[in-house]
Amino acid sequence: TISSPMSTCYINYIHVKTVLFLFFLAECQDGWLQFKSHCFKLHRLHSININYRECCHFFQENCVSAGGHLASMHSNADNVFIKDLVWNTTNSNAVTWIGARDAGQLGKWVWTDGSAFDYSIWSNGQPDKYSPLEQCVEINYLGTVFQYFITVLKS
């Protein structure tokens, strides 16, 4: 919902921590799901009143302060896992923030965890290359259809 510069920001975001493999498989803590070598958790906060354009930075900072980062995707398997995590946690196709952001160059995107931006399934017309103001990415899964990205205005 964007109705003014100061607006209610509806929050779902996926926090990821890397599982360390030494001589044994480390397990994820309660409330986290393991996929590949990472632990994932969908955080659900009903709303927070901050400048809507600052939402993605707020979520990333929360993840970093807890020792993780926002989720990145690198394959269809990652996409399906995250879609299932969102659906199974919210019982809906709730809009959820992930760690994709613009790289400061129109049409170029990066993951906030520093990994290669080597996978994406953008919705029709997205990312909208007509506006240099679009910076952050939300996902919304329409039933069992592919990932739906929405770019959000930056300040």
From TrEMBL:
Pfam families with a match to the protein in the record: Lectin_C
Superkingdom, natural source: Eukaryota
Residue ranges occupied by any C-type lectin domain in the UniProt entry: 35-143
Coiled-coil regions listed in the entry: none
PANTHER family assigned to the protein according to its UniProt record, in alphabetical order: MANNOSE, PHOSPHOLIPASE, LECTIN RECEPTOR RELATED
Protein name per its UniProtKB record: C-type lectin domain-containing protein
Organism: Astyanax mexicanus
